[in-house]
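Q: What structure does this chain adopt?
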Amino acid sequence: MFKEEVAERYKQIQDEICRGLEIADGKGKFEEELWDRNGGGGGRTRIMQNGAIIEKGGVNFSAVHGKLPESVKKAFNVTEEDFFATGVSIVIHPNHPLVPIIHMNIRYFELNEETRWFGGGIDLTPHYVFENDARFFHYKLKQACDEFNTDFYPKFKTHADDYFFIKHREETRGIGGIFYDRLKPESTNLTWEQILDFSANIGETFLPIYTELIDRNRNKEFTQLQKEWQYQRRSRYVEFNLVYDSGTKFGLETNGRIESILMSLPPQANWGYNVQPKPDSEEYKTQQFFKKGINWI
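A:
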């Protein structure tokens, strides 16, 4: 069955990323919790806390099935209710303010032969934007997309800019990346197997990108001011995930596992009142990059 093949590929990607992140961190180890979902399926939640560089990181796999709630059926505009969904979801919060937050999600959803699709993406949320790092990040994503379709990167980058946008702040969550949803043969000119290969390729791109960004910045010294700014930027991450993130909403509405769904939240974030960085400060310069449409390539 195709859906079992997808789930198996995703489990392998979870294993590879966990091994690689433990090596990159040098101290932290992932703790695994196996869980079952009321209604069908389950998953493997893996969390690292208080590592050498990773303060809190989650690399989660799930494969769940059951009945879609009415609210989700309306949102998807479908009448059938027996669903299957599998995916890998990752959020890493470093303890170092000059190392960025990273998020990745690859997923497959199926109601029947006609109603099924792939979705996912990777985006980067630096506390401080380093332009060379941003260019490297986007270049590697473009490479991964171009292997399958040269239209993918520009299209998916625009989707990421639009999706990872905190409307009530009028700013993007970070420097974007790629985001795609409802990929199927009709919309991609690829077979189902090729779309699975693309999805896996995005998953396999995560580790070399993030280990490089860790290694570039982990030994830089930082100040208390930079640490406070990190907590302030984390609060924007929380606001987006709790107000706008569709994965969070889907997980909560389908009776998902709360700890796994909310593993994306940082261990600490600060909400200072009306925080405004000084003009010409590094914090102010970083803030100017949190907007749509920047061409990093």
